[in-house]
């Protein structure tokens, strides 16, 4: 993840009540009930199905796409990974209507906040909107850790803030310090109408890819810490900030959910492969053989304690089934590496944004 070099309480939804009032729903980490056409529908309970009408857009439709995600442009020749659509068991995902969404969002300020998986989703979202309105003028600007995509005719801004941990990573006389109780980036998040947060992958990095020398909790510094414990402590700091600073009447808060990697083929039962390299089709069952993602349980535990309604885009299981969706050798590193963390575009993040779309138009 660190080599990309790019700019850059229970909670819930996704599954939601498809009604005007969006209330917290108790359950096991997710809302269980939505209502589409009178049917009970859990949008994240389903499977991947082949659909020859896919993808929603092509890489050629998105001239601002990052090279790291443009697998087709980087030489990937198999096309199966472009042809799968997420199919809930009891209903269908609402069709992504970009023009209608921009009308609904007229005058709004949206911000994606997190690591390069937030970049992946933000890029997908802007590509989907541009495909829907290819003649609409847009402005794309990048300043340090902020990227902004704006449709002036609708006065809609879709911003990305690169903040890999949400909490602070600073340098002092001892070296680089990950501060689990400190957040200074929060000033950039205020005044937004919609916030979509994400963090996880950087918490795992070790050795030369580890971006800190020490982890600090309160006044104590540690050379290392159990990464799931550190992740939960950092998320709790974020959660307290949201509860203290966000007015849910003015700002809707989402969490992207945990995006899985496919660096170990044994997790999906392949004893011959090493990672995602060469994978060209998804798993077609509804549950991932490797089981639930441990970080997903941590995230849900933090969200459950919060007083603010935070809408969980529960992308983990459906993404776990897409071992074929990563850039692998068709990403930033080319044949010198195998990227099994990020996602090709078009691809899996388009489904994340269909889920986001469903939440935005129904509530």
Q: Give the neighbour order of strands across the main sheet.
A: 6-7-8-5-11-14-15
Biggest sheet character: 7 strands, mixed
Which residue ranges are poorly predicted, with pLDDT under 50 across at least 5 consecutive positions?
A: 1-39
The structure class reads alpha/beta
H-E string: EEEEHEHEEEEEEEEHEHEHH
User: Strand portion, in percent?
Assistant: 15-25%
The shape is: globular
Average pLDDT level: 88
Tally of helical runs: 6
Q: Fraction of residues in helices?
A: 10-25%
The tally of strands reads 15
Rg estimate, integer Å: 19 Å
The end-to-end span amounts to: 34 Å
List keywords for this structure.
single chain, about 375 residues, alpha/beta, seven-stranded mixed sheet, four-stranded mixed sheet, about 20% helix, globular
Outline the structure in words.
The protein is 21% helix and 18% strand. By secondary structure, the chain is α/β, with parallel strands linked by helices. Strands 6-7-8-5-11-14-15 form a seven-stranded mixed β-sheet, covered by helices on one side. Strands 9-10-12-13 form a four-stranded mixed β-sheet, with no helix packed on it. Helix 2 crosses helix 6 (348-362). The protein is globular, with a radius of gyration of 19 Å. The model is unreliable at 1-39 (pLDDT under 50).
């Amino acid at each position: 993840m660190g080599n990309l070099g790019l700019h850059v309480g229970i909670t819930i939804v996704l599954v939601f009540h498809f009604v005007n009032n969006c209330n917290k729903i108790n359950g096991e980490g997710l809302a269980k009930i939505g209502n589409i056409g009178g049917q009970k529908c859990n949008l994240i309970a389903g499977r991947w199905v082949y659909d020859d009408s896919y993808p929603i857009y092509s890489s050629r439709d998105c001239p601002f796409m990052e090279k790291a995600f443009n697998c087709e442009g980087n030489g990937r020749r198999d096309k199966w990974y472009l042809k799968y659509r997420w199919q809930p068991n009891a209903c269908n995902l609402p069709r992504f209507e970009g023009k209608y969404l921009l009308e609904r969002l007229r005058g709004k300020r949206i911000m994606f906040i997190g690591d390069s998986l937030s970049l992946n989703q933000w890029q997908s979202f802007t590509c989907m909107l541009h495909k829907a309105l290819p003649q609409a003028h847009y402005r794309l600007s990048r300043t340090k850790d902020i990227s902004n995509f704006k449709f002036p005719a609708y006065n809609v801004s879709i911003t990305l803030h690169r903040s890999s941990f949400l909490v602070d990573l600073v340098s002092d006389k001892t070296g680089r310090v990950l501060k689990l109780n400190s957040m200074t980036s929060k000033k950039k998040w205020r005044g937004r109408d919609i916030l979509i947060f994400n963090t996880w992958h950087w918490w795992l990095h070790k050795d030369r890819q580890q971006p800190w020398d020490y982890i600090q909790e309160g006044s104590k510094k540690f050379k290392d810490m159990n990464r799931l414990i550190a992740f939960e402590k950092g998320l709790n700091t974020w959660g307290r900030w949201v509860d203290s600073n966000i007015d849910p009447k003015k700002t809707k808060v989402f969490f992207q959910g945990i995006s899985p990697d496919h660096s170990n083929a044994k997790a999906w039962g392949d004893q011959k492969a090493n990672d995602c390299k060469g994978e060209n089709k998804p798993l077609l069952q509804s549950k991932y053989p490797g089981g639930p993602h441990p970080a997903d349980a941590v995230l849900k535990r933090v969200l459950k304690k919060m007083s603010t309604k935070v809408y969980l885009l529960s992308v983990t299981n459906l993404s776990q089934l897409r071992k074929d969706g990563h850039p692998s050798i068709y990403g930033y590193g080319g044949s010198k590496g195998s990227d099994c963390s990020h996602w090709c575009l078009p691809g899996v993040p388009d489904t994340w944004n269909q889920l986001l779309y469903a939440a935005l138009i129904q509530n």
